[in-house]
Write a structure and sequence with these properties.
145 residues; mainly alpha; elongated; two-stranded antiparallel sheet
Length: 145
């Protein structure tokens, strides 16, 4: 008599996987910018909707744009991994997606052209996948015979 120890890996639902892959890939954009020319980030702070954001961007972010670009990449990787893990982590990932998008407003009102559609899509996707994000208990090993 042998024991079948195979357990099925249940991936999160499709929209959650797509969002996780998107955020993980977008981290690569930050890594590429840091590798190529981190001064590209200067224009982001210049268009900020509030002067204090522009000042902080220039004084803090642009003082070490390579470092902060990698921090941005790490944030996006974290969001992506949370979404891809499934279960409660994916729910936290969806909340992080919304917070990330809302935070982009600080960089300028023109970002609303991106933020509003992104939030609508993310909200619809999260709402669709949310009930499916609970992981079922792992199957018990079956006796093969």
């Amino acid at each position: 008599m042998t024991t079948d120890h195979a357990t099925t890996r249940r991936w999160p639902p499709g929209f959650t996987v797509a969002a996780g892959a998107f955020y993980t890939c977008m981290a690569g954009v930050h890594i590429g910018v840091v590798a190529a020319d981190p001064q590209v980030y200067a224009s982001y702070g210049e268009s900020a909707s509030m002067s204090w954001v522009s000042t902080l961007w220039a004084d803090i972010f642009m003082a070490r744009p390579g470092f902060w670009g990698l921090v941005a990449a790490a944030i996006e990787i974290t969001i992506g991994v949370l979404l891809l893990v499934g279960g409660r982590a994916s729910k936290l990932g969806w909340i992080a997606v919304a917070a990330f998008q809302v935070a982009l407003i600080l960089l300028g009102w023109l970002y609303l052209v991106w933020i509003v559609p992104a939030l609508v899509i993310a909200t619809l996707a999260a709402r669709h996948d949310w009930p499916r994000l609970e992981r079922p208990p792992l199957e018990q090993p079956r006796l093969a015979g």
